[in-house]
Amino acid sequence: MKTLKISSVMIKGLIVFSLILFTAISCTNTSDINFTVEGKLENLSVSSLYAIKQISQDSMTIDTIEVDKGGKFTYKGYVETQALVSLFTGEGLKPITFFLEPNYKVSIKGNALEADLVEIRGGRVNDDLTEFKTKNANILQSRYRILAKNENMDVSELKNVNFQLARCVRECVESNPAKISSVILMNEFSINNISIELLGNDIDQLKGEAANFYLTTPLREYYDRIRISMVGSVAPDVTLKSTRGKTVNLSDFKGKRVLLIFDLKDAPSNEGYFNQLKEAQQKLKGKVEFIAIVIDENDKSPDPKIVEIANSLDWTVLLDGRKWNSQAVKKYNVTEAPYMILISPDGVIEERNVTLESLVEKYKEDKEKD
């Protein structure tokens, strides 16, 4: 056994280092707390909450918060500047959103099953958000009643309520264009619930602190992405490799009506859908050019089985293995698959979220008119 000899100088050095380390830790512990959140939530089915603290568009942290049997919890920490927090209270539940700045003391009280109705006090932004939600509590309660029906939910009724909320947000933005709360409310209730033109108008109204808030940047990016991919816009060009190894530009098909199909590589395994796709293509042959983009198959080393199936089809199949990060998906603002977009012969987006049934029926009617 070897013995390590430690000199008295080394011992003194270790003691000094330990004292410095202890002092540093002590200082860190006290200075690392500049906000406190006290909460009590009903109908919690978990013993821990997860707080995702978003500091900027690209920076976030995750904290675990213990909850007692009565639903009470305390959350303490440190923020250098502004942070938006999403508090996850259980699987399938909408997170509770609140705002933090240095020296904030926040209180949270309410029903975990109704995140939008939870009362959050403490700090200018939280008070503004709670004021909006209190003022529009009847609409929010109607929304929860509709959502509670699950499978029996009336979608048209939900759309109507969402539109009412979005309209209230528009009034809030018009009255408070410089408030951060306006941006947060737009992200929560305006996106997907008002026309892209109205959303653009609301974004243009933002000024001061709201215009420079980090959530405004992705909101503008979303608006720009939707605007260039909406019906009536020039179809963005896409360049990808086909299953036959050729480089294909979407613009090469200008002069033809194109059905652009965003799909997954397991599409052939869904026999009903795949057979319907092939039947529709045969019926529309000579009228509509089918182009499929498989978003989850790499063009550099594609699965031979995928290539074999694709090359047996009577339409062009392009490969893009970047899934939801692909430029094609982003340019056309596609959030699900399969998803179909109809492009006119002059290269303009004619229709989004096309169904094969409606497309076949449309050209059947055109033929009967002829």
Provide a short characterization of the protein structure:
With 370 residues, the chain is an alpha+beta fold. It has 12 helices and 15 strands.
Would you give an account of this structure?
The structure is a single chain. The protein folds into three domains: 31-135, Immunoglobulin-like (Sandwich), CATH 2.60.40; 160-229, no CATH class; 239-369, Glutaredoxin (3-Layer(aba) Sandwich), CATH 3.40.30. Strand 11, helix 9 (271-283) and strand 12 form a beta-alpha-beta unit. Helices cover 40% and strands 22% of the residues. The model is unreliable at 1-28 (pLDDT under 50). With 370 residues, it is of the alpha+beta class. Helix 4 (155-175) runs antiparallel to helix 5 (180-190).
